[in-house]
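Summary for the funding panel

The consortium committed to producing paired sequence-structure records for every protein in the target list. Below we show the first two records in order, beginning with the earlier of the two.
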Amino acid sequence: MRYISLDLETSGGKPQRHQILELAAVVEDTKRPRPLTDLPVFRRAVRHHEYVGTAGALALNARLLEELARNEPNPEICPQKSCCLSCGSFY
């Protein structure tokens, strides 16, 4: 059976206050198990102008926040409000 595992990283647990930092997905198949490194994956991080979050959530995502702070071109990082998902975009 094929299925998709989703992972959503946020800056806290209150949707009206905290932000989505990253969305990732991996496609798995129970009939053909493969190492994680060989599976199809999707990842998009969202760069915000300012981050609001709990201390625990921000600490847990420190490496991701450092990557976002570098402000280097990266196809896996989308600006806030125009994040491209798969082949399309949302605004």
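The next record, for a separate protein in the list, is shown here:
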Amino acid sequence: MPANVSSPIPSATSPRAGRARFTTHWLSPTIITIKVEGELDAATAPELVEHATRHTDRVQSVVLDLSHLAFFGTAGLTALTQLDEAYRDAGVHWGATSCKPVERVLQICKADLPIHDSLLSALAATRKSAPLHLVSQSAS
């Protein structure tokens, strides 16, 4: 399994002519973080959803690191809402970090999503909510 998977997504149709970059880090076989950099707008938000749901059949926990975003539009909020539903349906526990652009949109829209102050707190929250997998041992 690759340690890092990087996916630069140009947003040529974005009025800001920005770009988003999604980098997946495998912390374990069932826990990933996805670092999101640049701008999350109408052009790049669908790409985030596609990238962030790529491994739902193999992971138990996902943390989106949004702390490096320069712009977060309402399409970003739509993407997070879609991810919340997709992860819930797949039984994947998730959380995200925040930054000023994300906080502004979430506050205005009064969104109730698992947003945390830091990557460590988001990881801790997803680990607490992840189920334990018990391994049975046969008697010798």
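Regarding this second record: The mean pLDDT is 82. The longest strand covers residues 61-72.
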